[in-house]
Structures are given as structure tokens and as C-alpha cells.
Amino acid sequence: MLTSIEKQLVQELQTEIPLVSRPFLALAQKLNLSEEEVLTKIKDLAVRGVIRRFGATVNHQQVGYVVNAMVVWQVPEEQIKEAGKILASFPEVTHCYARPAQPKWPYNLYTMIHGKTHQECQEIINRLIRASEIKNCCALFTVAELKKSKMKYLSL
Amino acid sequence: MELPELDNLDKKLLNLTQENFPLVPEPFAELAKQLNVTEEEVIRRLKSLKEQGTIKHLGAVFDSGKLGYYGILCTVKVPPNMLDQVTAVINSYPEVTHNYLRNHPYNIWFTLQAKTPEKLIALLEKIKQKTGLKEIISLPATHTFKIKVNFNLAEEEG
Question: Do B150 and A58 touch (CB under 8 A)?
Fold first, then answer.
């Protein structure tokens, strides 16, 4: 649970920090706290996992990772933990989730992979297949990004 | 796509600000110390990395689940001649945070976030009504093994 001051902080932290010498000062004044108090609260929210990370989010296309694919895997339920761990251990895998299989969609493990070329992505997928020993998988390459936005959380 | 030129200082700065952003009152001075440049140089570089779009966001990234939100991944088969219309409908909702076209008969993949599972279901019903699509598959995550969207930029030798 978040305290009321933490909720306010979460609302304020949805905008980026300004590129000034003391980027937490205006925020601290607005919340009637010191900069140190604001920073302590941010670190505490990070320890509790409410803030997943603090820092720069980079546009992956702009730094050369122009190709990405969602690779979905069909894994026996009792092997899903082990398979998930193996796939998640690869640095090229940015996201890895378990999702229940559906009648028309049998896959239950999901990974996002990023590479500089289509060929590189294919090689990553081959390595994932060898390491996980999962035979039934399907690679869905991204053709277009139609929307990417940030959710506005706890809006008043 | 034209990729921007990044020199070694840009790359070091991007690696540091992704992985180890200093949570101190003067973080840019701290980064400057680590990189052996001035604070003004760090701020100037970050401004230009943001202006050219290399840095999309500088600040906190939240875990939506820990803030009490429910999220799902959805997919739907959309015939090519309906793509524009369906995309416009799906993208019109602020609760839709991502939407991708992929090379598969299930070609549209989007994520939805809402405060309750009921709201998610209601939103999907609205999308179905407005687009005329009968079947949208929803895929909630039951376990997260990894989310790490940091990209380590190799610095050049010499």
C-alpha cells in the first residue's frame, strides 16, 4: 500500500526529471519535503519494486536494435518455471512471461528478443531453442509499432 | 531509419544513466565526476540525446501491478483491408499502452491496463463492438520471469 505522500510522489514522478543541476528540488518544494526526503522515498519505492527502475529509457531502434520479435513457446506446464529461467537468462531477451494457453492459441511462455538484423534475431532464436530444448515455438517479427505510450497512473 | 551518431562519451552516459542513475541531490554532477567531464557537458549531452529521441524518458519507471493495475496482452486476427480502421479504434483508448503489427495470422498485438479486471473486460467488449471483430484472445501474465529493457552500448576501442 502507498501512503498519501507516496501517491503524490508517484503522480509527480510520471513526468520526467528536469535537466537542471538539482532536478529534485522543485519536486521537494511542491511536496513540502527536503530533497533528501524525496530521494529516500524514491529509493524506498524502488526497494519495494513499485519503481521498477530509475534512469534513462532508451529508444532501442535508435541505438541499432532495429529488429525485434516476440517468440512464443509451448511448454508442458510442469517445465514452465525451468524453461522460463533458461530463456530469461539470455541478455538478448528483454521480457519473459508465462501466460495461460488458450483454446486457439497453445503457447504459454513468451519472450521478446531484440537484434540489429533479422539474421541476428534468427541466430538468437536458434540459441534459445538449443538451450531450452523446446521444440514447439513460433517467432512473430514486429512489422510496425502502432502505439507506444505511458499509462497515466493514479490520476486524480 | 537514419541512426544518430553516438560517440564514446554518449555511449558511456547512456549506459550509466540506464543502469546506475545516481539518486543524489546533484545527479548530473555525480555523473560528470564518474565520466571526468563537467556537469554542464553532461546536461548538454543529455539534452541533445533527448532532443534526437535516443532517450525516450528520464525518470521513474513503475511496476503497474504494484500500483494496483491489471494488465493483459491481447491479440486479434485483422484482415488487411480493416487494419487502419481497427488500429484507429484500438489506439484511441489511453488504457492501450502498446500496439504492434506482427507477421502472423494473429497480426495485431496490444496491451491494456486498467484498475480492475471488470474494466478490462468492458474495454475489450467496446473494442469488439466498435471494430466488429468477434474474437479477441486475452493473455494475462501469470508469472514474470524478466523485464529488462536496458541496452548496453559497446564502446569503441582506442
Answer: yes
Which residues does chain B have within 8 Å of residue A10's beta carbon, measured at their own beta carbons? Answer: 60, 62, 67
Q: Is residue A19 pLDDT above 90, yes or no? A: yes
Q: How far is A127 from chain B (nearest CA, A)?
A: 18
What's residue B156's pLDDT? 67
Q: State the Cα angle at B69 between B65 and B72, rounded to 5°.
A: 85
ipTM given for this complex: 0.90
> Tell me, what's the pLDDT at B152?
80
Name every residue whose Cβ is closer than 8 Å to that of residue B7 and which is 6 or more positions away in sequence: none
Please enumerate in sequence order all residues whose Cβ is within 8 A of that of A23, keeping only pairs 6 or more positions apart, or say none: A17, B27, B28
Q: Which domains does chain B have, with CATH numbers?
A: 8-51 (1.10.10), 65-140 (3.30.70.920)
Judged against a pLDDT cut of 70, whether residue B106 lies above it is answered with yes
